[in-house]
Amino acid sequence: MIRLCKESDRGKVLEYLNKDRVLNLFFVGDIDNYGFDNDFQKIFIDEDSKGIHAAYLVYYENLLLCSYTKELDKDFVYKLIEDYKIENISGEQGVVDTMKLDGYKNDDCYFCKMVKRPSIQDETVEVAKTSDVEEIAKIIKIVFDQDSPHMASNIEDKTGRTYFIKVDGKVVSAASTTAETEGLAMVVGVATLPEYRGCGYASKVVEKLCSDLLNEDKIPCLFYNNPAAGKIYHRIGFEDIGQWALRRNQK
């Protein structure tokens, strides 16, 4: 039976997700940071007398899927997509691949976590304030053709942070975190303006960001789909631990 979760379900839901806490970082981080009683976030579980078989989390227009046994209720997923006007669907690749998602572009990635502390920290890397968001968001738009609607609020409520580096007074590279929670943080939005690539700016930003996270006993995680980027992340200290699927609405 599928049902909407309440705060009283927190322990049960987290016990299920913590079976693979790292791979479920988005799930766990969103629950820890926003709970069960927000209009923009809803958590559902499919359970019977044997326990939970699947979990579904809606965060604004994003849908997260989790099922260790790959027992998604496909009709329910389609209903969530329609009811919440879902733009992005993500989860462990083997789980997401059980769904037929017409109109969604595949963007499969490697999921990795940091296993070795970066050896270099560049002091020219800066920590963003909300006043820096507008300029950084322009880089994200240029590189990924995506908006950054939650960057400022993440900085304000400390559920995420953004680091950047300037050249001649201009922001040229940046990286952020999201879903920060006890012991873990997801690194996202690693971007460098095209004309400044190949100079190591992104590496410097990510190294400083990850060093600060480790100083707070938070293991950095990220995903990538570019082999060249993967080589850089591996050199910095990341290791692949799984495969992650992201489906973007192309309609």
Give a quick set of tags describing it.
13-stranded mixed β-sheet; Aminopeptidase; 30% helix; 13 strands; alpha+beta; 2 domains; 251 residues
Task: Explain what this protein looks like in three dimensions.
The protein is α+β, with helices and mostly antiparallel strands and 251 residues long. The protein folds into two domains: 2-102, Aminopeptidase, CATH 3.40.630; 112-245, 3-Layer(aba) Sandwich (Aminopeptidase), CATH 3.40.630. The protein is built from eight helices and 13 strands. The protein has helices at residues 10-17, 25-34, 74-83, 93-96, 133-144, 151-157, 201-215, 227-236; strands at 2-4, 41-48, 51-59, 62-66, 88-92, 104-106, 109-114, 126-127, 162-167, 170-181, 184-192, 219-224, 238-249. Strands 1, 2, 3, 4, 5, 6, 7, 8, 9, 10, 11, 12 and 13 form a 13-stranded mixed sheet that branches. Strand 3 and strand 4 form a beta hairpin. The protein is globular. The two termini are 31 Å apart. The relative contact order is 0.17. The mean pLDDT is 95.
